[in-house]
Structure formats: structure tokens, C-alpha cells
Prior knowledge:
Elements: E1 5-7, E2 22-32, E3 39-45, E4 51-55, H1 58-68, H2 78-88, E5 92-102, E6 105-113, E7 119-124, H3 126-136, E8 140-143, H4 144-160
Parallel strand pairs: 5-8
Antiparallel strand pairs: 1-7, 2-3, 2-8, 3-4, 5-6, 6-7
Helix pairs in contact: 1-3, 2-3
Amino acid sequence: MARYFRRLDFSPANKDGVGNMEIEVKIRALMMDPNSGTPIVILKDVNSETMLPIWVGAYEANAIALEIEKIAPPRPMTHDLLRNLIVELGLKVDRVVVTSLRDNTFYAVIELTSENGDPMKLDSRPSDAIALALRADCPIFVDVEVIQASRNTIATDDESSEENEGEGEEWPDVIGDASDLTM
Length: 183
């Protein structure tokens, strides 16, 4: 369990001695990929038009959509249970951060603070971190390197599928415009 939950190092540098830059994002939309039928969470930079698509599972998309639309299930869902447990343990969710993109998989951490002020990090999938951030009313951040890696991946995918140009479909919003959501 210790490998998933560890003390947070607030040093301004990463393992290479270079400071990480993070941007705050909001949920812009929750959509379905018309090709695969997989839900996509679109995160948008609060200070620019930069957007980051993250493919998520159906259950996580449902958990995100329920909280965005403020639909209260009759019994606590998994992310509600996680938030309740965090509160009962005397912890506070400070923020969530999408930290990396490796082998087409996004990684995230949930940053917490104990009642004594001790900072901690909890390893997480971005979809779970986002669902929890909505419930804990905390900000969502993305490391700038994730945005760049995502652009490189998308550019590579686009170049390899140039013959499919013009076949693109309109991607419908499942939850509509979420730009005014409070975090």
C-alpha cells in the first residue's frame, strides 16, 4: 500500500533538477469517441484555449457526469465513498494533478493534507482523480509536459491517418458545455 500513498515532496524540481510547470484546467465536456464508443473527458486550460482529451472508462464517465449534473444516487458511489473516507480520516484533498503520459496511458496524483498539515500523494488514474476532485471541490491541474506529449501523440496519429481526412464525424457533447462548472 505504501507505494500508492507517500509523503509529498514540495521541492520545485523534478528528478532531473528542472521545475515542473502545471496549468489549471476545468472540465470542458464529456463526449463519446464516435469511432470506439469510449467516453472522453475534455480538460481545458482556464487561461487559454488549450484542451486535453483523456479517454476514460464508462463507469468513471458516469461518476463524473452524475457529479457535474448534481444527481445524487440513492446510495454512495465509489467516488463518494472515497471522499467520505478521506473526510472521516481527517484528510483534505488539496488538488489533483495529471502528471504524465506514458505508452498512451495517463497518470495522476491526488494531493492531500492531514489534520497536522502533513502533505501526502495518492497515485491515481486521472478519471478517478477527476471524479474525486468534483466531489471534493478542488482544482485540477495538468503538467505542461503531458499537454506536449499528448500533442505529439495526436500529431503522430493524425499523420498516420491522413487518408481518413474528411471522414471525421461531429463529436456530440454528452453533458453539454461545462465551462461554468465550479471546482
